[in-house]
Task: structure prediction
Amino acid sequence: MRRLIAVCPILFESQNYNPGDELPTHDIGFVKAWTKNGAAIWKDDKKSEKHTIKAKPVTASAGLPGNAYPSARPEQDLIGKPPSRRARGAQPEPSKRREKSCE
Result:
């Protein structure tokens, strides 16, 4: 089903519509005017699925490059930053939360 969505704030019949709100379509003259000047657009419900975007680091890791002792690997030697838990072989810490009791 197609919906008419406001792109900019619109006052129509004593009602304020903010960007993203669905507009009424009973007055064809206003619908044509809104779509012609770009104040509203038609949107299909089928295409309104949200796509999640995964963040990727764009900068280098914190720390200064250099020789660390003991060395994990050449690409992981950063002064002032410990190597990753996997590279160190560290065990996961136990949970500090209390267990729920069933009574």
The two ends are 51 Å apart (CA to CA). The first strand starts at residue 2 and ends at 6.
